[in-house]
What we know:
The structure is a single chain. This protein has helices at residues 16-31, 33-36, 41-60, 65-88, 210-213, 233-236, 268-287, 380-383, 402-405, 426-429; strands spanning 90-94, 115-119, 145-149, 159-166, 172-175, 178-181, 184-185, 219-223, 239-240, 244-253, 259-260, 288-293, 302-307, 312-314, 321-324, 333-336, 350-356, 362-365, 368-371, 411-415, 432-433, 437-446. The chain has 457 residues and is an alpha+beta fold. Helix 1 (16-31) packs antiparallel against helix 3 (41-60). The protein has three domains: 16-88, no CATH class; 91-266, Umud Fragment, subunit A; 282-450, Ribbon (Umud Fragment, subunit A).
Amino acid sequence: MTTDSNNPGEKLPIPPFLGIATFVVGVFLLTWGPRYVSQREWVWWTGIVLSGVGIVLWIFSGMTRRQAIEWSKSGAIALLFALAFRWAVAEPYRIPSGSMMPTLWGDERIGRGDRVFVNKWVYGVRYPFMNERIWYGKLPQRWDIVVFKSVEENPLHSTLVKRVVGLPGERIHIENGQVYANGQPLELPGFMPKDQRYTQDGIYGVRTEDEFSVVPPGHYLVMGDNSRSSRDGRYFGWLPNEHIVGRVASIWWPPQSWRDFTGFSQKLWWKALVVITSVWLIVRIFIGRSWPYHPLSGAKRFHLFISFLSMGLRIPFTRWWGVHWGAPQRGDIVLYHPPAGGRFASDVVLAGRIAALPGEKIAIEKGKLLVNGGPPIDAPPVADLELNKTQVDATFGRTRNKEFSQVPAGHYFILSEEDETGMYDSRSLGWVPRKRLLGKALSIWWPPQKWELRIRN
């Protein structure tokens, strides 16, 4: 994401306090709204929207128009992927009532009640906003907990959650708290609530006429675990397959109520995946990352391991350093954010070699870098760099003016070896402050034949 340095673009007229104020209002509605407005789900969603809008406004307040357009494009693509995933694969839902207690805790109040993830792929994908499937997947099984669209007109809740009890073609009858299918009592699985009993309320599954006891093809009888307080299939009848949105996979909120209904978390491959992912996240956030790199023009790309800890302790997800140590030396390959106010946005990451240290004088003559009047013999890769490429606004090192030839304290002069980014290094971007360095390359890890535990300058 770049801007023309000759015409960097006018910054958007969005004051930072506007985004902060909008975010604060959103958080207030999320946390304190229920004290003043009860049983209003729209207040909770309004808080979510305002919090998101506040963050976006705060980010845009420091951008030019061109940067905002580029950011918006990336955001729109990410949003489309998120919506596609939510439509076809999985979606979170709130439990609106107590009909599935004690399995699922429901509460009408804002921010209360269990939140569940629903697998929308397992039974087949439905057309958006329609009770019709594009294709059918696995058929619902007995005792599955499903989320579905109500078959009643003007229901109190348009989306409900119940448990599948009766399957297509079965004759269902409830008597003395027991469910009978084709005359045989159904044995409750161990994961069902203890002492589960179904009341003989309603008419479907209660009355013995075929109309009320035989489940039609492609339909199901769904009931709540809290039988005495559940308006379910016993009242509104058989549930068509097309109305089923998906299967409840897990409770994800609140954390203390987390529960896996599918058994996937007990599988060895899932546990291994969680461990590998956790280790990768710890390494990626606190220790270092991989980075592709071209060592010299024409050479094949290899992958470096960039160590964050080689230069100090950086506070994750911020630009702040807690402690600095291990000052970089000439010839080190480093990962860095370009100086603020240049042709790149502040979130861009570049790579290059440290070519000059704080206080040194530099000059580029006949395609070679001179440091303090001579070649930097202490770092052969820097001395061998060919710097004949045309640079846009390449001022630094090409004039005797002290402002553009002497590295300030706490800054570095970084040169790129890469063909793709050779025009974008300190020659045109300027001195790089140490606080914008992310880490130093310690080793080559890929490809295997290039493996090197410690990179030699």
